[in-house]
Amino acid sequence: MKVFRSSLLAAAALLCSASLLAQGAPKLKVGLMLPYTGTYAALGTAIENGFKLYLSEQSNQFAGREVEFVKVDDESDPSKATDNVNKLIKRDNVDVIIGSVHSGVAMAMAKVAKESGTLMIVPNAGADAVTGPMCAQNIYRTSFSNWQPGYAMGEVMAKKGLKKVVTITWKYAAGDESVRGFKEAFEKGGGQVVKELNLPFPNVEFQALLTDIAATKPDAVYTFFAGGGAVKFVKDYAAAGLKKSIPLYGSGFLTDGTLDAQGAAADGLFTTLHYADSLDTPRDKAFRLAYAKAYKLQPDVYAVQGYDAAQLLALGLKAVNGDLSKKAEFSAAVEKNKIDSPRGPFTISRAHNPVQDIYLRQVSGKENKVVGIASKALADPARGCRL
Ligand code: BEZ
Q1: CA distances (Å), 13 to each of 1, 18, 20, 64, 330, in order?
Q2: What is the model's pTM?
Q3: Number of structural domains, the chain?
Q4: Are residues 155 and 129 in the same domain?
Q5: Using a 6 Å cutoff on CB, does residue 103 contact ligand 1?
Q6: Which domain holds residue 242?
Q7: What is the dihedral of CA 318, 324, 328, 332, to 10 degrees?
Q8: Which of 22, 27, 181, 258 has the fewest Cβ atoms within 10 angstroms?
Q9: Average pLDDT score over residue span 172-197
């Protein structure tokens, strides 16, 4: 009798979802909260481009649902982030929030997402806390944690036998955590960070700090800058005459999406990142060709992360037949499947951060060329995450 009743219920549920499909599934409202102005503007645009490219490859539907976008320029300003994300969730009733680039903005978004249960996919911001103490079943990241590229470069530079390093970065979560990850591996490998320099985000008045580096004479410098700030820093470093005497290393954001503007000042720089321009795999070649055709631009790491945010969303939605209320099933599907990324296939950890290869790259002309794998299948330690 019990078996008969549950099969009746299952049949009714099937009929119900079939009739929903026949009526046409409701549109999926996607809230894009990204920077479209300021030093990270180009990063926001590349993420949106990548996301939309994958969507177009799925006939503009995820699990049978057409997609409607609501866009907010978050200006990389954490003080406006809570209001911005609340508007998307409460006023615009979005089903999912995609954002952001800046770690401070992403942490404010994650707090609201966690409290409201709204699905959130981070397509860039590396804030360790998002997949650490703030981790949640409904929060995912398709990019990296700030710790990951920093840690990988710490190992590389220690293995090179460098001993005394100065770090320089913006004073906010991304810079602090990138340096912390670097320092953890570098000091474990026998090196020493002799000075930590920083300036407020998005300040680009580097002169006094460059003078300090010249006077300190370390073996090398490790840095995190990105976007417009990275362009200016690399040019100023070369113009100050430091490039030849004190080698500059960085997490890969230093030279990604920036090489046209940096020109010869970037040539030869070594960085670590989960993407490069010369991977030469069929998957990446197809992606690069499609991106160049659609946008008349070469893709960068941000475009890949946006593309993969759309892939993750499609994967989860398919597993729940388009029904986002099934959070546990969505999460189980994402955790057990690989994302077939242009960067190379990667998995999503229990804390919802990519477990991925970190490449060592060197700038040659207009490309970040792969030199090798700095760290294979590197997983963020997810300190403080309880799931
Ligand atoms: C961040 O704020 O997390 C970030 C911004 C740009 C590039 C990488 C990380």
Answers
A1: 19, 9, 11, 18, 19
A2: 0.94
A3: 2
A4: no
A5: yes
A6: 147-273
A7: 20
A8: 22
A9: 98
